[in-house]
Amino acid sequence: MTVVADAPELPAAPRGPSKSQRKREAAALRALGEQLVDLKPAQLLKMSLPAELLAAALAAQGMHQRGARKRQLQYIGKFMRRLDSEPIRIALLALASSGAAAKQRQEYLERLCAALVAGDETTLATLIERHPAIDRPYLDQLIRHAAQAGESGDPTSDRRALLRYLHTLESG
Hints:
The chain is elongated and about 105 Å long. It folds into two domains: 21-83, Diphtheria Toxin Repressor, domain 2 (Orthogonal Bundle); 102-171, PSPTO4464-like domains (Diphtheria Toxin Repressor, domain 2, Orthogonal Bundle), CATH 1.10.60.30. Helix 1 packs across helix 3, helix 3 (51-61) runs antiparallel to helix 4 and helix 5 (86-118) packs across helix 7. The chain has helices spanning 19-38, 41-46, 51-61, 66-80, 86-118, 121-130, 136-152, 156-171. The protein is 74% helix and 0% strand. By secondary structure, the protein is an all-alpha fold. The chain starts with 18 loop residues before the first helix and ends with a helix. It contains eight helices and no strands.
């Protein structure tokens, strides 16, 4: 019996990701594609997406049959494997955070409106201090109308007018 001297080992060929890892990545891209499809068309147009991906996402929004929509989402996921998905993720995160900021802003304006209608003088003084060029007679009129409408039971239109005015003050 001959003993072979230790032969030098060949370096192992570099391996790619496992099949399971590739499946997880494909599923993540498909989920990202689903998030794109769930956006409004105007939001999709604001994002800097490749034309083919934009067209595929808009087409998927119009598909209501389960099988067709699923195939379209698979196609979007496959297309996204060729792209760098990080800018799309960042854009979706920015969109989500801007939505949360808009919601917080709306809640703030509603609290401000409720305080003004309730007659809170400190809130009114703070608002006037923050916006010295405010049209005080118009603001008083809006507050008065919203308060009177609230007493009568239908505060919606007058309250919306006050909210619109507060929104223009805060955004301008």
